[in-house]
């Protein structure tokens, strides 16, 4: 298993990343990525910490591996996976949405039912199994890109066979596999990943067979490039001014492939439109990965709750009844997501071959609840802050400048907090609630699984409608013939 230092070294592999017009040669040293790379490395180092190792590391047949590669066979195994994700989320305050346990859940869930990948003329079950073993043995961090560029599914804009279609698709083959070109979105965390899972989480039209490939590629594959959005750390002012965006900006990248060769052994689906999406929902893949989403969300809400408490103490408003009521409301929200997480384990599903899976309906319901409440929770914290975050000096240089340091220390202190302590608190609050980094997280929490109707569709698919409708149908049938003669008589007489 890798250490944090070894993990950082593994990122210096010749990958191609563009930040605007700049080609980033090394994410471990570039100011826009380096601090976040070290935050990822911390997750690897945590495995050596006796507080965390019992949960972060699992063992089977004398082999040690990351617990997010554990195939669960019992409730205890599900609890281990959940606690592993909780520790990772706590170490990153829920701000790394695509920590290694997320896509690690994809490949683990797929490998739990590899026989389903033998369809038609293609037999990819061995590919899935061997790749899972490869990831587990080599301690890999995976990112994923599973959506087409927006607008590319419109046949009025692009003919199905048009060379101008930008979405990734198979354009040919070679002796060892197939050749792909095009664009995929959105590879969150890819700047810090070893390999990239490429697939289709959205439905494809029946005639889009060439786009229905699912495969995995090293991030440094020739012809593959990552195009990053704005790196918030690059434009920040360091840890004091931007403590979260400096250390926990996981990056979001568009993937461009230019005649990239994909070996046969790294292909999981090909020329099968329905199955290229079905692999996520007809195996435990989507459930194992997205349990992490709920756990990570809880860690972020825990940070917001703690921040709300400290802000009101710092401002001296913590004893105001209305303020206490708002704090209690936030506490209830955190307790709700905790219960939804526990429900995924308590109501777990039994699968074939002795495997177990988180309750999928509860998992999707918890994500739907999270998407609908993140903005509301942020608004509550914002109300508690009021204008306090805007009343701080421009930056901490006021504490060092001879003309301002004494005045700053004297006038911005209060309620047992020094001026520097208060400024530090409000800088963190702004980075979580009001900065560019905060805006990205607000957008992310709403749409990382797609629009709300997509999440509701997942909930509906996992609902046992026979069980839901059965009691009502039985109730309706139970009194069909039990009609009062007096009631009929009164109706006839009234007529």
Helix content: 40-55%
Mean pLDDT score, rounded? Answer: 94
Number of strands: 16
**Category from helices, strands and their pairing:** alpha+beta
Give start-end ranges of low-pLDDT stretches.
none
Largest sheet: 6 strands, mixed
So what's the CATH class of the largest domain? Answer: Mainly Beta
Task: Round the Cα radius of gyration to an integer and report it.
Answer: 26 Å
**Percent of residues in beta strands:** 5-15%
Report the principal-axis shape: globular
CATH topology (level 3) name of the largest domain: Butyryl-CoA Dehydrogenase, subunit A, domain 2
Count the domains.
2
Gross CATH architecture of the largest domain: Beta Barrel
Calculate the terminal CA-CA distance, rounded to whole Å.
Answer: 85 Å
| Widest sheet, order of strands | 2-1-12-13-9-8
Question: How would you portray this structure in words?
Answer:
The chain is an alpha+beta fold. The protein folds into two domains: 4-61 and 114-281, Butyryl-CoA Dehydrogenase, subunit A, domain 2 (Beta Barrel); 287-465, Butyryl-CoA Dehydrogenase, subunit A, domain 3. The chain has 18 helices and 16 strands. The protein has helices spanning 4-10, 34-45, 53-56, 75-91, 100-111, 125-138, 232-235, 243-247, 273-281, 285-315, 321-346, 360-385, 405-411, 419-433, 436-447, 452-461, 465-478, 485-494; strands at 17-19, 22-24, 57-60, 63-66, 118-119, 122-123, 142-145, 169-174, 177-188, 195-198, 214-218, 224-228, 252-263, 267-269, 349-350, 356-357. It has a six-stranded mixed β-sheet, with no helix packed on it. The protein has a four-stranded mixed β-sheet with strand order 7-10-11-14. A hairpin with a 5-residue loop joins strand 15 and strand 16. Helix 14 runs parallel beside helix 15 (436-447). The model has no long low-confidence stretch (mean pLDDT 94).
